[in-house]
Specification:
Blueprint (H helix, E strand, L loop, with lengths): L2 H5 L3 H31 L4 H9 L1 H27 L3 H28 L1 H8 L6 H13 L1 H13 L6 H25 L3 H26 L15 H32 L4 H26 L2 H9 L3 H37 L3 H15 L2 H16 L3 H8 L1 H18 L1 H26 L1 H4 L1
Length: about 450
């Protein structure tokens, strides 16, 4: 455990030492997502692109489940390390690792069995159903590998192994990118081939994580030998983990809602949004990396009751993440038509996707405030605040905006709902922070 990093290293250096490997992992994930969509779009089949886009909430749901144990466990374990309770942290890490495998198996079986109803719920139309089904089946079967990979990426950072977490993500992304063209084109498996490449990439990442934790980690474990955990400890993980997972669950709900609201306007609109969402992910994933990259630092300092350093870290985090949101949004706003054309050089899709992308980018600067505040709530055990924000931006706030604005402005209102929800969520984040955290570190 690198106590110097957490206790004495200058704040910008300590924060970036933890956050930069997470950012690099995010960049690799971004490259993978863009390459993945690039190869899918190269098929030239709009219905295939739309079918894969329809299944995005399934993948997001699996990330949510992984985050429930990954982020929830990281929050509790980092605070235990700050209190010098290393053995307790190790026990809880076993629960998080093994629990993710069990949940992955159960969820995979349920998703596979319910594929017909789920695909209709996701918004698959008659034209996109078979493409969506081909992608969905393989993602469902790969659930244990996808869900497990989210846990070590979070828990390794509590021990200061941010670089190892990055390496695992890199391995998975690189394998995925190499296999995409092989399965999609060489083996002519289309949408199903893209899903198979994703699952195999996660398997390779998981193998690396198992090796690293077993061979290199001193404070984390995947071994069930001598393992025990109390219901109170499980509750402490889930109190933070469930709000964390709700962020991604709400994203799945938001995409399903949006797909269904866009369906009356044609599958080309869903295809355009599928591409737009990949571009938006550039901003989101980088901001997430710099927000949650500091999570072990927040948790450790809170556990150690180091208020002065905690305030310094918070100030740096808000300035960094919100500033990044502004800069990246401006750049992508200018490059919007070129970004859409990179994936699918179809004049109709470019014409639809460019204003869609620009409108959604308007909300990105607000997201930084919400993300950092959510991370602080998770790190300090403020479950109510984390839940309110996690369920808000793409949940109850977004749902209300979608219904109201679509009724007022039709298609334009559907697209404007997200940036409107982003702005309102930032306002909520400000008031919740002032109530729940500010008094404790004053």
């Amino acid at each position: 455990m690198n106590n110097e990093l957490f206790e004495t290293m200058p704040v910008p250096k300590a924060y970036m030492k933890l956050a930069l490997p997470v950012m690099m992992s995010s960049v690799l994930m971004l490259v993978y997502n863009m390459v993945d969509m690039y190869f899918i779009a190269r098929t030239g089949n709009t219905n295939l692109v739309a079918g894969v886009a329809v299944c995005a909430p399934v993948f997001t749901f699996m990330i949510a489940v992984g985050d429930m144990l990954g982020l929830g466990g990281a929050s509790v374990i980092s605070r235990l390390f700050g209190q010098r309770k290393d053995d307790d942290g190790k026990r809880l890490s076993v629960f998080c690792f093994l629990g993710s495998i069990v949940l992955g198996i159960v969820i995979g079986l349920v998703l596979f069995a319910a594929q017909g109803g789920m695909l209709k719920l996701l918004g698959a139309s008659e034209e996109t159903y078979e493409f969506a089904r081909a992608y969905y089946i393989w993602i469902a079967l790969g659930a244990p590998f996808i869900i497990f990979s989210l846990v070590p990426t979070n828990l390794l950072r509590t021990e200061g192994f941010a670089s190892a977490a990055m390496v695992g993500s890199a391995i998975g992304s690189i394998v995925n990118m190499i296999l995409d063209p092989v399965f999609i084109f060489t083996l002519n498996m289309g949408a199903g081939g893209a899903a198979i490449a994703t699952v195999i990439g996660n398997i390779f990442a998981d193998m690396y994580y198992f090796w690293f934790i077993s061979a290199k980690s001193k404070k984390l474990s995947v071994s069930p030998k001598g393992f025990h955990i109390s219901s109170r400890e499980i509750g402490s993980i889930l109190r933070i983990g469930i709000p964390s997972s709700i962020t991604n669950l709400m994203q799945s709900v938001a995409v399903m809602l949006l797909n269904n609201f866009l369906l009356p306007y044609g599958s080309d609109k869903i295809a355009a949004y599928g591409i737009v969402s990949k571009v938006i992910m550039i901003v989101i994933m980088i901001m997430v990396a710099f927000s949650f990259g500091g999570q072990p630092l927040f948790g450790y300092l809170y556990g150690a009751n180091n208020k002065t350093r905690m305030k310094e870290v918070l100030r740096f985090a808000y300035l960094l993440v919100c500033g990044l949101g502004v800069c990246l949004s401006v750049i992508l706003f200018a490059l919007a038509p070129h970004m859409i054309a990179f994936f699918l050089n179809d004049p109709a899709v470019i014409e639809t996707g460019t204003p869609m992308l620009r409108m959604i980018l308007a909300g990105m600067p607000f997201i930084g405030c919400t993300m950092v505040t959510t991370c602080v709530f998770q790190s300090t055990g403020k479950a109510s605040g984390a839940l309110a924000l996690s369920a808000g931006r793409q949940g109850y706030i977004y749902g209300v905006m979608l219904v109201v604005l679509s009724a007022i402005a039709g298609y334009t209102g559907v697209i404007a709902a997200q940036p409107a929800a982003d702005a309102l969520s930032a306002v909520l984040a400000f008031f919740l922070y002032r109530k729940l955290v500010a008094p404790e570190i004053a």
